[in-house]
Amino acid sequence: xxxxxxxxxxxxPVSACPACAVVPSAERIAAMxxxxxxxxxxxxxxxxxxxxxxTVESALSAVPGVRxxxxxxxxxxxxxxxxxxxxxxxLIAVLAxxxxxxHELDPGLLSSTETDRQGRDLLMRLGVAFFSMMNVMLxxxxxxxxxxxxxxDLFHWISAAIALPTVVFAGQPFFKSAWASxxxxxLGMDVPISLALILASSISVYxxxxxxxxxxxxxxxxxxxxxxxxxxxxxxxxxxxxxAAEELAALEVPRAIVLLDGVEVETAISLVVAGDTVxxxxxxxxxxxGVVLTGAxxxxxxxxxxxxxxxxxxxxxVVSAGEVNLTGPLTLRVLAxxxxxxxxxxxxxxxxxxxxxxxxxxxxxxxxxxxxxLVHILSFSAFGYWMWATGGDVRYAINISAAVLIITCPxxxxxxxxxxxxxxxxxxxxxxxxxxxGTALERLAEVDTVVFDKTGTLTMGVPEPVALADHPPQxxxxxxxxxxxxxxxxxxALAEGAAALGIEAVAVxxxxxxxxxxxxxxWQGTRIRLGRADWCGATAIAQTATYLAVGGQxxxxxxxxxxxxxxxxxxxxxxxxxxxxxxxxxxxxxPVRDLALRLGITDWRAGxxxxxxxxxxxxxxxxxxxxxxxxxxxxxxxxxxxxxxSISPATALDAARVASDIVLLGQDMAPIAxxxxxxxxxARRMVENFVISGGYNVIAVPLALxxxxxxxxxxxxxxxxxxxVSINAMRLK
Length: 733
Hints:
Blueprint: H1 3-8, H2 18-21, H3 25-35, E1 39-43, H4 49-61, E2 66-72, E3 77-82, H5 88-97, E4 103-105, H6 111-114, H7 117-144, H8 149-170, H9 172-183, H10 190-209, H11 217-251, E5 255-260, E6 263-268, E7 277-280, E8 289-294, E9 297-300, H12 302-305, E10 311-313, E11 318-319, E12 324-325, E13 330-336, H13 342-345, H14 350-354, H15 359-389, H16 394-407, H17 411-430, E14 433-435, H18 440-444, E15 449-452, H19 454-458, E16 459-465, H20 473-483, H21 489-500, E17 509-514, E18 518-523, E19 526-531, H22 533-536, E20 545-550, E21 553-563, H23 567-576, E22 580-584, H24 589-599, E23 604-605, H25 610-622, E24 627-630, H26 637-642, E25 645-649, H27 654-659, E26 662-664, H28 671-705, H29 711-730
Parallel strand pairs: 15-22, 15-24, 22-23, 24-25, 25-26
Antiparallel strand pairs: 1-3, 1-4, 2-3, 5-6, 5-7, 7-13, 8-11, 8-13, 9-10, 9-12, 14-26, 16-21, 17-18, 18-19, 19-20, 20-21
């Protein structure tokens, strides 16, 4: 029996949380209200400087019930401790009065951002390595300046006291990874790295113990520092993007009005369970998956299906989280909420996208797979040769073997990709694009086809009246009077359009909105209506429209979806560099055709279902095309995952944003063309970095093999190659 059939028989489905069914209503009300008694997080996207901190904190502290307000300027957010009666909307209004834009954040979605243990661990080890490197280098200056005998040995032992604990502590990420590789029967990149660190330290201790002239503690610590720098750059590139993506997701704070014993309780969606009764007011987004119990309205499903025309909702209609209730209040019985909703289940597709690797990343992996055995062979061969050539001088042979191992340490190879991604990500972020996936830039460079969604992607998803001035002023005045009394998006657009033409609405009395149909009123003793064609007795036109019925006559007001700023420029720029453009939309044929003509897109399809979008992307991929998918709705999620690389606007649904590789932070679409250009530049820089690191080894390894490079000289040469790779990556800026 289906869920709707359960409701038809007056039975609710079994709750997803059996324990919740036995909790007294009063206790649940108290729990939900207690949820509001705590921290409120607000995003401050335009905050800058100390003046903003003082203004925001003082304004919020003056609100009754606010205990404290603390601004984090780095993260551009404010944390507020407040009493239960204080709402985020109230605080946002206060800040708006002070000239500060603010948006509510969901603290629960930011938890992983606040506890970046791996990043803090790497940064701590990097700091220790840098501090030790500087001190050991200072001690080495004395040795290089001519310190002899006991003085030299003293400086070497002091260096050992600093360097050895540092190598043990700072090298942990490499040692653990190398041990895991060896246990799995592989020679990963961290195996030669770990051997180089251990060997450089061991030789230095031996030389110091034997009162040798040279110890290489500075080389060991320098190796650890540069290797950790590459590892930290790689981590931060991904962590910063993940943090910003979580903040974008947290901007849509899902709250629901739950009806408990007739009491309306606004609460976080995390406390809503299947079987609850939820009230959704006109203009609000559906917070849960549910079935309509009472009420009639129209529902905007454009973000989920691409349909620009609303659909009717009545008792028995199943609705999904993310849809917008337009005209009348609806009472829903919850089918799924929070992570169980259809929106959040779509996020499971991310695992597929996250597992994708491109040829550049796999090139680094393959290079490491070939590199590690070769390094070990060269090092042991050098040891064996010099043992034979010197008649068994173990000390000399080990020094050359260590120099070979250090000079071939894949530090530059490890920096080749992270350094470019870090540089390019920063450049794109300043242009309004957030790179979420570590390989997105590499894949973006290979794109030859771009597939766009329409509603909410190439357009704003906001209706715009067409040829409004062609209607008689009296007709516009009547339509504006009725439209002013409705919250329907077409009515709002009509009222705004009439006001822009200087039309003053006439006096209409007895206004009454009929959910799902339209609004009617009395004018000069005559009933007039604005709404659906069949309700107004009009003949529907092949375009998104609303209809006015007055005195036995009807008038149609047509609408088009407003193109997103920069859409035309982005399409033109992408076509100029030889990319093929396709438009796939779930909307009706007429609006899709009109938009395609306006933007110069010749290859377009209307009425495309979500599965058909994903199938088209898969078809293009099978034909050898590298597809960039740009979409924003739940209906685009499968296609976003199937594409070679994907972009979604910040206004997209959570599922689409999570599935995409890149997020467009602003409304302007022009940066998409910049992303393709910078992606191609980044790919060239990565290849250049591989060439630099390989060329360095071609020159340096022979010098080490013939004994012309000490372990210290090898470390300095290795550091120079790493710096060269980093500088080459920074050329993107």
